[in-house]
Amino acid sequence: MSPFDEYLHTAIERARMEAHEDGSDAAEAHHLLLAVAGAPEPVAGPVLAAAGLDRAAVAEALHREYEASLAVVGVDLASFDLAPPVRTPLRSIRIGATLKQLLQRSFTTSRKKDLRPAHILLGLLQIEAGTVPRALAIAGVDRAALAADVRRAL
Amino acid sequence: MADADLPAPEDPADALAAVAALRRLADHLEDTAVERAMRAGWGWPQVADALGITRQAVHKKHAKRLIAAGVELRRR
Questions:
Q1: Residue B32 domain flag
Q2: Tell me: the pLDDT tens digits for A33-80?
Q3: Contact (CB<8Å) A76/B2
Q4: Buried-exposed string A16-54: b where 16+ CB fall within 10 A, e elsewhere
Q5: Can you tell me whether residue A22 is helix, strand or coil?
Q6: Which residues form the Clp R domain (chain A) (predicted)?
């Protein structure tokens, strides 16, 4: 395994752990974002830190995105008294659709030997629709600017 | 629901995000409701009928989770 493959494998395992912990049955792209923010590598780390994106900030933004998206159709998340779900066993956590799509788009098309760990963050920043870009916008992140910072640091 | 006459969201990004968030909320509600039903002695066919999905689907989605949590499951 190349260093990139090794890092990607570790990051996906951490994403599956994030999914397990929030009661999901699948690891999605936003779980990978949490994983990357929670254990940043040397290139992406300082870029994320400069943008104020630690794991807690990402988690907060994701929760606000969930609330805001429900509010669009008049649903108030705070009015639900939801018990934390019984967790899906870690070994049964699937790779969800958004993560699968990210992996296929970002890490199979480009030349594999040129990939470095920070390309995972770059791939996350390049997702154009869905939970990840919406949460990043809520966190006040300019995705294009952050992606440029990552490229410069590579 | 806060508003009876809430208009459908105009921005497609908002509308699609709302659908995704509702699915996630529905999943969470389903997890909790199925767990409660199974703890109360419901069988898979009853839960499946109540949810309007097949028994196979409900079993596939929830069995591992409930077994791991030590919920006693009726065989049928």
A1: yes
A2: 999 999 988 899 999 999 999 999 999 999 999 999 999 999 999 998
A3: yes
A4: bbbbbebbbbbbbbbbbbbbbbbebbebbbebbeebebe
A5: coil
A6: 1-154
- CA distances B25 to A24, A63, A91, B71, Å, are 11, 12, 23, 22
| Cβ contact, residue pair A72, B14, below 8 Å | yes
Pick from A37, A29, A53, A56: nearest CA to A127: A29
- pLDDT of residue B6 exceeding 90, the answer is no
Name every residue whose Cβ is closer than 8 Å to that of residue B51 and which is 6 or more positions away in sequence.
Answer: B30, B34, B58
Task: Give the residue among A132, A113, A130 at the shortest CA–CA distance from A62.
Answer: A132
Q: Which of A20, A63, A72 to mutate against chain B (most B CBs within 10 Å)? A: A72
Q: What sign does the CA torsion over B8, B10, B15, B18 have?
A: negative
For residue B32, give its domain range.
12-68
C-alpha B23: how far from its chain's center? 9
Judged by CB atoms closer than 8 Å, whether chains meet at A74 and B1 is answered as yes
Residue A104: partners with Cβ closer than 8 Å, 6 or more residues away: none
ipTM of the complex: 0.89
**Strand A94-95 to A26-27 pairing:** parallel
Helix %, strand %, coil % of chain A (to 5): 65, 5, 30
Domains of chain A listed by start with CATH number = 3-77+85-153 (1.10.1780.10)
